[in-house]
Design a protein that fits this description.
It is a single chain. Helix 2 (13-24) crosses helix 3, helix 4 (57-70) packs parallel to helix 5 (92-102) and helix 4 packs across helix 10. The protein contains 13 helices and seven strands. By secondary structure, the protein is of the alpha/beta class. The chain has a seven-stranded parallel sheet with strand order 3-2-4-1-5-6-7, sandwiched between helices. Guanosine-5'-diphosphate (GDP) binds at residues 53-59, 85, 90-91, 94, 190-191, 193, 225-227.
């Protein structure tokens, strides 16, 4: 076992940061470490937090982290959002609060760009989850921003997914439109200090009644004022309840398999792409096929078969 691997397993922050960077750069050293740490993973509860920008996800993560720290649990935070206060974006007041966490040894924060293929999650996020898990974090909070594929993809990584909404703006309706209704294990109506909370909760609950297929568990709708740390203790309890429910029904393992499936597919996709577009293998061939496609000498399907035929033969 190399130094970086054993230091990651000891929870050493600098080794964790280093391995994440190596993994993001597809460095072969990272691959060796990733192979070595996998048997040490699986303990962390991965919690996805998604919702529109400005709904209070980062603030909520900050308060949740403080609650988990009070319980003595170690926390990893992955912010897939360049504007996050965790990555130095956002308002000064928010940023100061977030950096408070950075001085705590039991907390590791990493922000990542949204440079995933097809607008999905950046592929290194699977590695980061494994690394933080192996480093001894009990809780991993993954924040994704906006409404799109990344939000839907977070469900594949998370054991428990929170969808954060705010009162007003017909948010619940927007959620359905974006097709993320199915991904919520828990709804959080944040900014409950604003008007229209009851209406938002009622709206979401009636949507749950229509769309929720699970008869054994009603999806809870929690209200919070993240900015004033109101409702976070109850939210932590609901997150724990969801985990217990998942364990009891064996859905936990089903969900974990989804993550590993997504991760495996992503690794294969990445390797295949690197192989095809690598200078030494097919680069020249690919270029000449693109020329031929442009000149209508060949169609893209036949061209793809030429490349794949060479791999699969
Ligand atoms: N009024 C109010 N503002 C909040 C609340 N929670 C967060 N905010 C503020 O909303 C803004 C966006 O919060 P942030 O956590 O960055 O949202 P994110 O984009 O979803 O991560 C910040 O200025 C927060 O201070 C809340 O419960 N009530
Ligand atoms: Mg944020």
């Amino acid at each position: 076992m190399n130094d970086i691997t054993s230091n990651v397993l000891k929870g050493e922050p600098r080794a964790i940061a280093r391995l994440i960077t190596l993994a993001e750069n597809n460095d072969p050293v990272a691959t060796d470490s990733m192979k070595a740490i996998h048997p040490k993973t699986g303990k962390a509860h991965v919690i996805g937090i998604t919702g529109v920008m400005g709904s209070g996800k980062s603030t909520l993560i900050y308060e949740l982290t403080r609650e988990y720290r009070k319980k003595g649990l170690k926390v990893g935070i992955i912010a897939i959002d360049p504007t996050s206060p965790f990555s130095g974006g956002a308002l000064l007041g928010d940023r100061i609060r977030m950096t408070e966490l950075a001085t705590d040894d039991g907390v590791f924060i990493r922000s990542m760009g949204t440079r995933g293929m097809l607008g999905g999650l950046t592929s290194a996020v699977y590695d980061v989850v494994e690394i933080l898990d192996a480093s001894g974090k009990d809780i991993i909070l993954v924040e994704t921003v906006g409404v799109g594929q990344a939000e839907v993809d977070v469900i594949k990584i998370a054991d428990t997914t929170l969808v954060v909404l705010v009162p007003g703006l017909g948010d619940a309706i927007q959620t359905i439109k974006a097709g993320i209704m199915e991904i919520a294990d828990i709804y959080v109506v944040n900014k409950a200090d604003r008007s229209g909370v009851e209406q938002a909760v009622a709206e979401i609950e009636s949507l749950i009644d229509i769309t929720c297929s699970d008869k054994d568990r009603k999806i809870p709708v929690m209200t919070t004022v993240a900015k004033e740390n109101i409702g976070t203790v109850d939210l932590v309890k609901e997150i724990e309840n969801h985990k217990k429910y998942m364990k009891k029904t064996k859905m936990f393992d089903v969900q974990r398999r989804k993550r590993y499936e997504a991760e495996l597919v992503e690794i294969i996709r990445k390797k295949l792409m690197n192989f095809i577009f690598d200078e030494s293998t097919f680069k020249g061939k690919v270029e000449s096929l693109i020329d031929q496609i442009s000149k209508k000498e060949i169609d893209p399907y036949t061209a793809s078969e030429e490349i794949l035929g060479k791999i699969l033969k």
